Structures are given as C-alpha cells and as structure tokens.
What we know:
By secondary structure, this protein is mainly alpha-helical. The protein folds into 2 domains: 14-75, no CATH class; 78-176. It is built from 8 helices and no strands. Helix 6 (78-87) packs parallel to helix 7. It is elongated and about 75 Å long.
Amino acid sequence: MRFLILFLFLFISGCATLSESECIHGDWFEIGQTDGRNGYKSSRVEKHSKACQKTNTNVDFDAYMQGRKDGLKYYCSPQNGFDSGLEGSYYNKVCPIELEREFLEYYSYGKEIYIVNNEISSVENEMDQKERELEDDDTTDEERRYLRKDIKYLIKDLRRLNRELINLEQRYNDLL
C-alpha cells in the first residue's frame, strides 16, 4: 500500500507543469513567454493553474497571455518553422493568422528534408541488415545472390535520396 501511495504521489507530481517555487515566485509574463516560444497551446495556462492550486497561488492570466503572445513571435518565425519541420516536430496550430502562412511554408520545407533524411536512414538500416545476412555463415549461395541484388537496388535508391536531399538543401538555403 505504501508503495502504491508513493508511486501515485510521484506520478501526480511528475505531471505538474510548474514546481511549487515557480508557482509562488514565478513571473507569469515570463512563464507565458516560455510557453509561447515552445509552441504550447493557450490551454496550458489551465494546467499551470491546476499545478499551482496546492500552493494557493493564483495565475495572472493577463500577464501569462501577454507573455505567450510575445513568445509566439519567436515560435512562429520562418526560421523556427523550418527548424521545427527539420526536427519532425508536430505543429499545434498555435500561430496567429498573420504569422501562420509563412511559418507553415518554412515548416513544410524543413519537414521535406526531415522525411528524406528518415528515408535515407531506413534504406541504410535495410542495407546494414542485408549485409549482415550476407556475412552470415548460414546464408545459402542462392540467398546471397538475392541479397546482393537487393543491396544493388538499395544503393541506387540511396543515391537518388541523397541527390534529392542535396537539391532540397540547396533550394532552401537560398530562402533562409
């Protein structure tokens, strides 16, 4: 029973968006600004409010929303859109309408490169697997012929993907 209570306490406290100290001494403009810079939805303030209930601290919603609005200027920038796409990050649809179009344009550029990089990794992993099978003493001669043929096609695919990646990077370097 003690273990269960300790686990629940750790689980619940691990879900808190702010520490007790942040609730009591936090600058709500700065907290909102950080959340905006990280692309969190405005509903995150409700989670902060819930996390701060145990300290009897009230959230300054106006300061938080002003800070978040300021932070979104960074998050919704074209460069951050590109970087977010390049990392494969999910877009939470938080950008104001006046910033969203350009953000999404650059986000899609980064996402294209991210997808090609993932395809390259996938092909490389498949090649590694087939090369290990090729070196395996239990592999028959007939299996080796098929493996060599598969590797040959994978090499062609890898070359194509690398050319595609170079073209994408050149195209987008000119934009940034």
